[in-house]
């Protein structure tokens, strides 16, 4: 197998699920059912395994972004509930019915398309839908003042069931929660309007990781965490109240080592030149594996060197990525005294506190940990 691989620490995944559940229980005084977001192949961690571990750990189901992601889970026998967090094309409605997915809905046309698809479907069951209200995210959702009419329309469809009413927060991970509380107020008001028309809204849900970890009032009936389950806080503004452990470890092995002289350059564009004689190692991982090119000349890796050290965690040192990250390879400056050899282990990011994690790389690349982990792509085997 290839040197570059992503180790998925399922024990850390379980730890995070339990820590999150424990924190919610202590706030609420009772458990709150939850759906784990496994869209984008489980934020890059492998949706099938994440879904099955989450299910074992008590999740009621999972959230996906596309019908294909739902189909993949059904193909491997996942029997939990699957919420479809995005709006898809009406022509995908038949597949939603067949796969027993629970779509978010936000307009009448889509609602009617789903109702018709359920009617035509051989599955012979109602589609459970979740009415999404846009209380301030500005992405998908009906206007709060239209929610009651839409809920009535849904309730009139024989082949649909209103399983829930929900919303989403753009700033639940910020240290200023005032907008989130404003949204909750709009949401409650809209739900009140639905109830006053005699429609049961089903279960209410809104809490992404930011809200799960910081806005107790937003927990409602069901929570929808994502990134926290994978071991990261959604932003560094958020208070670190529970210990989350990174689940993904991106590792590789040194495939080539050389010494270079002062004045010699490394990689495309010659953006890095040695200022001293030093040992340079080449690592077979690049931006086409999902290691961001913006990390060129910025990031560090954790290098495990030395004979007896190949499996010895005491021999780990941080060394810098030098020159531009290439499509399939990058170079690290191991230093003039380094004993680095071909085969030595390199950790690009992961749970080891001595090395970088996805949050550190995200900051260096001007992005968020979500993107760092979900960019690790199909070319990298998951172990
Ligand atoms: C992705 C997603 C979540 C989870 O968000 P995190 O910030 O990763 O916790 C929750 N709800 C919806 C609708 C989503 O798309």
Give a structural overview.
This protein has 383 residues and is of the alpha/beta class. The chain folds into two domains: 10-230, TIM Barrel, CATH 3.20.20.10; 248-374, Lyase, Ornithine Decarboxylase, Chain A, domain 1. The protein contains eleven helices and 18 strands. The strands form three sheets. Strands 1-10-18-15-16-17-14-11 form an eight-stranded antiparallel sheet, with no helix packed on it. The chain has an eight-stranded parallel sheet with strand order 2-3-4-5-6-7-8-9. A hairpin with a 5-residue loop joins strand 12 and strand 13. The model has no long low-confidence stretch (mean pLDDT 96). Bound molecules: pyridoxal-5'-phosphate. Pyridoxal-5'-phosphate is lined by residues 37, 39, 85, 168, 208-210, 224-228, 234.
Largest sheet: 8 strands, antiparallel
The beta-strand count equals 18
Report the structural category: alpha/beta
Mean pLDDT equals: 96
Order of adjacent strands in the largest pleated sheet: 1-10-18-15-16-17-14-11
CATH topology of the largest domain: TIM Barrel
Q: What is the 3D shape?
A: elongated
Report the span from N to C terminus. Answer: 11 Å
As a percent range, the share of strand residues is 15-25%
What is the C-alpha radius of gyration, as a whole number of Å?
Answer: 24 Å
Count of separate DSSP helical elements: 11
Q: What is the H level of CATH, i.e. the homologous superfamily of the largest domain?
A: Alanine racemase
What percent of residues adopt helix (DSSP H or I)?
A: 25-40%
How are the elements arranged and paired?
Elements (H helix, E strand, L loop, with lengths): L4 E4 L1 H19 L6 E3 L1 H5 L3 H10 L4 E4 L2 H9 L5 E4 L8 H7 L1 E5 L2 H13 L6 E6 L14 H10 L3 E7 L11 H19 L6 E5 L1 H4 L9 E2 L24 E6 L2 E5 L4 E2 L5 E2 L4 E6 L16 E5 L11 E7 L7 E6 L9 E5 L8 H8 L3 H6 L9
Parallel strand pairs: 2-3, 3-4, 4-5, 5-6, 6-7, 7-8, 8-9
Antiparallel strand pairs: 1-10, 10-18, 11-14, 12-13, 14-17, 15-16, 15-18, 16-17
Helix pairs in contact: 5-6, 7-8
The site of pyridoxal-5'-phosphate has 13 residues, from helix 9.
């Amino acid at each position: 197998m290839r040197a570059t691989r992503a180790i998925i620490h399922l024990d850390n995944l379980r730890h995070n699920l339990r820590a999150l559940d424990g924190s919610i229980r202590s706030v609420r005084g009772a458990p709150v059912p939850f759906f784990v977001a496994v869209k984008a192949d489980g934020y890059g961690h492998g949706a099938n395994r994440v879904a099955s571990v989450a299910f074992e750990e008590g999740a009621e189901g999972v959230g996906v972004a596309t019908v294909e992601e739902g189909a993949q889970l059904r193909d491997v026998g996942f029997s939990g509930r699957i919420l479809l967090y995005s709006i898809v094309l009406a022509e995908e409605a038949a597949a939603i019915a067949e796969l027993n997915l629970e779509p978010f809905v936000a307009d009448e046309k889509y609602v009617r398309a789903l109702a018709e698809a359920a009617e035509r479907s051989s599955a012979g069951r109602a589609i459970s839908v979740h009415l999404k209200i846009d209380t301030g995210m500005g992405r998908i959702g009906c206007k709060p003042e239209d929610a009651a009419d839409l809920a009535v329309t849904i309730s009139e469809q024989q082949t649909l069931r209103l399983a829930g009413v929900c919303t989403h927060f753009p700033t639940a991970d910020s240290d200023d929660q005032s907008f989130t509380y404003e949204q909750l107020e709009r949401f409650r008001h809209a739900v009140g309007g639905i109830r006053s028309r005699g429609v049961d809204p089903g279960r209410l849900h809104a809490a992404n990781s930011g809200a799960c970890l910081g806005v107790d009032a937003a927990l409602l009936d069901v929570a929808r965490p994502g990134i926290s389950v994978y071991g990261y806080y959604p932003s560094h503004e958020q208070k670190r109240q529970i210990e989350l452990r990174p689940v993904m470890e991106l590792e590789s092995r040194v495939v080539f080592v050389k010494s270079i002289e002062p004045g010699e350059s490394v990689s495309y564009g010659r953006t890095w030149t040695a200022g001293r004689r030093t040992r340079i190692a080449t690592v077979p991982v690049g931006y086409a594996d999902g290691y961001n090119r913006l990390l060129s000349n910025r990031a560090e890796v954790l290098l495990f060197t030395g004979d007896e050290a190949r499996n010895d965690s005491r021999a780990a040192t941080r060394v810098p990525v030098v020159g531009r990250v290439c499509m399939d390879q990058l170079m690290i400056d191991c230093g003039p005294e380094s004993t680095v050899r071909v085969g030595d282990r390199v950790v690009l990011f992961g749970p080891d506190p001595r090395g970088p994690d996805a949050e550190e790389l995200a900051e260096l690349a001007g992005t968020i940990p979500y993107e760092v982990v979900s960019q690790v792509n199909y070319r990298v085997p998951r172990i």
